[in-house]
Amino acid sequence: MSALLFLLLAPLFTGSLKWLKARLQNRRGPDPLYDYKNFLKLWRKTWIRPQGSSPLFMVAPAVSLLGVALAAAFLPMLPGISFAGDFLVLVYLLNLGRFFQVLAALDTGSAFGGQGSYRENLVAVLAEPGSVLALGAVGLASGGLSLATFSPLSQENALVYTLALVALSLALLAEGTRLPVDDPTTHLELTMIHEAQLLDHSGPLLALYELSSGLKLLVYVGLIALLIPLGALSFPTVLLLAWLALGYLETYGVKLRYLRLPDLMSYSTLSGILAVLGVVLRFRI
Predict the structure, then answer these.
(1) Are 147 and 91 in contact (CB under 8 A)?
(2) What is the pLDDT of residue 283?
(3) Which residue, 248, 252, 244, 255, is CA-closest to 221?
(4) 237 with 98: CB under 8 angstroms?
(5) Rounded to an integer, what distance in angstroms lies between the CA atom of residue 179 and that of residue 62?
(6) Could you give the CA distance from residue 41 to residue 23 in angstroms, rounded to a whole number?
(7) What is the structure's pLDDT at 189?
């Protein structure tokens, strides 16, 4: 149920984010429902398969969307899948989509596809430890390693959860391909990361990738919402804050140089490590 809700919500979130950024830049901007219309427009177009590519090129977008949708099904916003250690499965289901996306980009033989794949894999490697450690620390602090048993922030676990929120917020920027890690609106081939992998895709294949990217962003918003002590209002509140923060950041912020990204993502890993240490030290006391 969570996966279906997020699938319906993802185009609204990304489309309205474009509208918000345009308004902050004193432009009229696109309709907040633009991404729904764009999805339908792309879906009706004919896709083109690069010469020499294998059938993997056509399968990868569907696998990418399926992996992220299955990951969303683990979020306990609505009845779904739950077991001990499910947060690890969620993280690696998100990576499954990226794995096939990278294979498809390399399959085209395009120079930009290879360049984008290399860059995105490096960003993912840097972001993954912070996410896993942060979720593991929250699970240990909650006394259960299932997302459904995660307890929200309280006075007793404030330090650990603050560190976990920092790690997950940085991972959201990296995995969601947002500034300052990546610029989803860039058209400069030499600075593109995620978009460089999609240059050879068109029509329904591109539509699936666009939907998958928006869905992954919402999955990270959902993970952060699990830590916020507002009950049923946690997800809408975090969604609104993420919408406003991303709109502001992408209007007034700039993309970091690629060589500076390891420095930024090291804060995510460091926060995750400190969160785990905070839980362990507290148990020893």
Answers:
(1) no
(2) 53
(3) 244
(4) no
(5) 26
(6) 24
(7) 64
